[in-house]
Write a structure and sequence with these properties.
Layout lengths: L6 E4 L5 H12 L3 E6 L11 E5 L5 H15 L4 E4 L14 H11 L1 H17 L2 E6 L12 H21 L4 E8 L6 H4 L11 H16 L4 H13 L6 E4 L1 H12 L2 H11 L5
């Protein structure tokens, strides 16, 4: 099943940003493979082939990439979108729970990247587009473990991008803020709750839920993913949506003390 169209592989494509990205990439002329833990239950998308994938499994990742290359001939763009959220104070997540979040958000991204890079380097072209977050560049009280994974993705991607450029491959970052998805509802609760944090943890969940209700549609992020996948002169970072662009600017120009105070105000923390 070789194709003349460029081939994009999107992880976590059954809903939210991943689904919107798969649709947008089809519209941009890509042959798209979307992945899900249970592809049989994914709602079909015209032009998208759904396959099973668990990014936390080395065997699943290698099997999936081999199958895509065998069926489509190559992978031109990998969109690392699969991820999991976690809400709670940093002290409230056990190390085992933190490992679980990192295994999907960071090590899953690394597994996928390492699996596709040999083929991309061999063809001397390719893009790895990572769905990061503005929470990879700013503090996130009561989402410390999740924010830590996105900070890790930012540092990893920026470093690997330097390693890959001479081989015709780019490693790029798409940075949304809050997006209208099921992120809040599906985020992990802490497995080691501490009573002293209970009230503020619920405030944090309310702040998150309120932000998600008024957030950008996933289509906004999907358009930015397509831009990262297709720009003739790609940028390392792509803030996704008006708020992301504002936060990115403010992080650069606002004095650290003032920025710190604004973080506390937005998260309803005592001054």
């Amino acid at each position: 099943m070789q194709t003349a169209s460029p081939v994009a592989l999107v992880t976590g494509a059954s809903s939210g940003i991943g689904r919107a990205a798969a649709l947008a990439l089809v519209g941009a002329g890509f042959a798209v493979v979307g992945t899900s833990r249970n592809a049989a239950n994914a709602r079909p998308i015209a032009g998208v082939t759904f396959l099973d994938l668990d990014v936390a499994s080395d065997e699943s990742v290698h099997s999936l990439v081999e199958e895509v290359v065998e069926r489509f001939g190559r992978i031109d763009v990998l969109v690392n979108n699969a991820g999991v959220g976690a809400v709670g104070a940093g002290e409230e997540s056990s190390i085992d729970q933190a490992k679980e979040v990192f295994d999907v958000n960071v090590f899953g991204l690394m597994r996928m990247t390492n699996a596709v890079l040999p083929q991309m380097r061999a063809q001397r072209r390719g893009r790895v587009v990572n769905v990061s977050s503005m929470l990879g560049r700013i503090p996130a009280p009561f989402m410390a473990v999740y924010a830590a994974t996105k900070h890790a993705v930012e540092g990893y991607a920026e470093s690997v991008d330097h390693e890959l450029r001479e081989h015709g491959v780019r490693m790029l970052l798409v940075e949304p803020t809050y997006t209208r998805t099921s992120f809040e509802a599906s985020s992990m609760a802490p497995d080691s709750p501490v009573p002293v944090y209970a009230a503020q943890r619920e405030v944090a969940r309310d702040v998150l839920a309120t932000a998600v209700r008024s957030a950008d549609d996933p289509d906004v992020v999907a358009k930015v993913i397509v831009a990262a996948a297709t720009d003739a002169k790609p940028k390392l970072r792509y803030p996704a949506g008006p708020m992301a662009k504002r936060v990115s600017l403010l992080r650069r120009i606002v004095p650290s003390r003032a920025f710190d105070q604004q973080i506390r105000k937005l998260n309803r923390l005592a001054a």
